[in-house]
Amino acid sequence: MKKFNYLIIVLLLLTSVLTKGQDELKPPKVPPPFPYFKLTPEEEREYLKNINSDLIQKLQGIKKVDEAKYAEFLRNMHWKNMNWPFFTNKMDKEEMEAGKKIIEYEILTESLSIEYKKASSKEKERIKKELQKNLSQLFDLKEIRKEKEVKRLEEQLKKLKEKIANRKGNKNIIVKRRLEELLGESEYLEWE
User: Fold this and answer.
1) N or C: which end of the chain has fewer CB within 10 A?
2) C-alpha closest to that of 107 among 39, 42, 44, 52
3) End-to-end distance of the chain based on CA atoms, in angstroms?
4) How much is the average pLDDT of 52-67?
5) pLDDT band at 20 (very low <50, low <70, confident <90, very high)
């Protein structure tokens, strides 16, 4: 009986210690909002390293107007300029190059829209035509990318349909093998 009383006392002490510890827990302070678009000077230098000077000039104009968009473009260009060792097939490399071209056109069109807002009425027509031309090219690039994606998805769908048809045709064999695995009767099929 005394052991039981000691056990109850110990349990009560433990629960009081545990619940007291929980009462003292306060929710963590929410950190002040950090502007995700802010780049450190090191990041900025690194990102600008592989970009041609004409594009850097366009990016600087964007930075003056919209620092978040500037940082987004820089990060995207850095991503596309990176050397990806696991992209070995031609399709992946072409996709990265197409993505890089798309970002370059997006930078050009954004830069032109900023120029347009600052331009005199004489220059606005020229900028508008150039912007329209660049937007048309950007649209074409994005459509080509989408068409390639559709083609890739259609090929995957075709392979999946073939696989399903093959599995349906071999249902009895597949079920028999799985049954043997589950029942441990497949020992004679083991590799070693």
Assistant:
1) C
2) 52
3) 61
4) 87
5) low
Q: Where are the domains of the chain?
A: 41-150
What is the spatial distance between Cα 6 and Cα 102, in angstroms, rounded to a whole number? 75
Question: Is residue 105 within 8 Å of residue 134, measured between CB atoms?
Answer: yes
Residues 112-133: pLDDT tens digits? 999 999 889 889 999 999 999 9
Span of 26-35, 65-74, 143-152, 177-186 with lowest mean pLDDT: 26-35
Residue 164 phi, psi dihedral angles, 5° rounding: -60, -45
Residues 133-145 pLDDT 10s = 999 999 999 999 9
Q: Helix 90-118 vs helix 53-65: angle between axes, to the nearest 10 degrees?
A: 50
Record the tokens describing residue 9, joined without a space. 């006392």
